Amino acid sequence: MFNFNALVSRIKYIPRWSLMRQSRQEFLAEHTTEVMQIAHTLAAIANKKFGQNVNTENIIICGLYHDISEILTGDMPTPVKYNDETLKCAYKDMEAKAIAKMLETIDEDIKDDISPFVTAENLSERETKILKAADKFSALIKCMEELQCGNAEFKSAYTSTKQSLEDMHLPEIDYFIKNMLPSYSLCLDELAKI
Fold it and tell me: How far apart are CA 145 and CA 17, in angstroms?
């Protein structure tokens, strides 16, 4: 029996932002979907607007698997994960062991087709940055939503996440911030106007 797909399907049970009071609980499955969609957009921007040649499909598929270690580890809050270098290294090691354990559950006949996307070893440096940016944009959008609901708990996370995106110095990130991010503050009636 091969358990990989059943394990991956459990992303719907993993809550995010566990140390934060939220107006609406977010789960890993919805975050993953948003990361994939934003990664697709960022890759298209990189290729069409800035002359890059990134592999959009690889980025999107890696986005599908980018947080699956959390199925076995849970979502470690960012302030805890990055608070101490020893803890950060220990958590990275725990994530790697979780990924290795999950890879053992794939049918050997298809393992070579799936593993590079789970480990993201098939991404170039630019593609890795695009995927990381998509992950951060998803977090930033969650912060924006919470702030719009009057939840000041997310103010610090918003500021630090936006700064980390700007610090990546990629033109596709700047383009998304200027031309697409403001739309996330609009209501459906405003978004649907043609």
Answer: 13
Question: How far is Cα 127 from Cα 2, in angstroms, rounded to an integer?
Answer: 30
Residues with Cβ within 8 Å of 68's Cβ and at least 6 positions away in sequence, in order, are: 7, 8, 11, 99, 102, 118
CA distance 122 to 93: 20
Q: Are residues 69 and 95 in contact, defined by beta-carbon separation less than 8 angstroms?
A: yes
pTM for the model: 0.94
Nearest Cα residue to 66 out of 126, 11, 142, 20: 11
Give every CB contact of residue 6 below 8 A, 6+ residues apart in sequence.
none
pLDDT greater than 90 at residue 128:
yes
Identify the pLDDT of residue 87. Answer: 82
